[in-house]
Fold this sequence. Notes:
Elements: E1 6-10, H1 19-32, E2 37-41, H2 47-57, E3 62-67, H3 69-80, E4 91-96, H4 102-106, H5 113-122, E5 125-136, E6 141-146, E7 149-153, H6 154-169, H7 172-186, E8 190-196, E9 199-211, E10 229-235, H8 239-251, E11 260-265, E12 267-273, E13 278-280, E14 283-285, E15 291-303
Parallel strand pairs: 1-2, 1-3, 3-4, 4-15
Antiparallel strand pairs: 5-6, 5-15, 7-9, 7-13, 8-9, 8-12, 9-10, 10-11, 12-15, 13-14
Helix pairs in contact: 2-3, 6-7
Amino acid sequence: xxxxxxxxxxxxxxxxxxxxxxxxxxxxYMDSKGVSYDYMQSEGFGSVERxxxxxxxxxxxxxxxxxxxxxxxxxxxxxxxxxxxxxxEIAIGIIPNGIGNDFAKYWEINTEYKEAVDCLINNRRRKIxxxxxxxxDGKTHRTRYFLNAINIGLGAxxxxxxxxxxRFWGVKFLSYFMALISLFFERKLxxxxxxxxxxxxxxxxxxxxxxxxxxxxxxxxxxxxxxxLDVSVIYRPELLQLVxxxxxxIQGRILNHKVVKPYRTQNVKVLRxxxxxxxxxxxxxxxxxxxxxxxxxxxxxxxIPN
Length: 306
């Protein structure tokens, strides 16, 4: 196999009919630029993970995901679980195509496919960290990986509701906003027991975000290459604090809020979070506490813009 050949996985945008049209444009542009690649299309849930694992096992050293955060999460899990020799040398490329592209946004990867392809051809590389979450599912010990963040509690419920309403609204931001507002007024709390940097944190908590990257604004100081996880623990806000909290979240200043307690660590143990939903990069995780969340420093390579 040619060492520079890309393995491209195309994950069609959820709910769109113009599946082939979008891919044909990208393909045409890549062909015009003389890119050497093999192409695979995902066939629904779980297939991106399987395909990424196959590419990694077959010696592809550049794996390009045409998709959003969910597809990217599937791909990273497929690569990390593969038998590939040196996973650190596998470069991930992104051509944003999902409803949520937060990780691509963090790196300022353009959603315009021509610019995204040019960025890949330019091939500027950076080693990045990968978060991991270990848990026991009742039968086996499992590990799931993430690039952006893990949300426990309110954040994960918003993801759940956004997914359910996305089809109805058709717009991610609107669905997200509606979910946010409805849940904020509910202000549900969860009985939580965490261990961070040797400190036991117990109490009634609204939401926890553990971020390798900026975690939808909840961990605005997190960077995916310093070997650390940023954690925001958000306690119950009063109604007025909610409004100011939303505003501070939008402005990237959430850590200054009275009800937010920030931490920086390499390991978080979630011993208990009663009835709380958990999501990794927008993928809902079947709850199995305790969770042991850690980080692998410079575990993989990302192709980034200049």
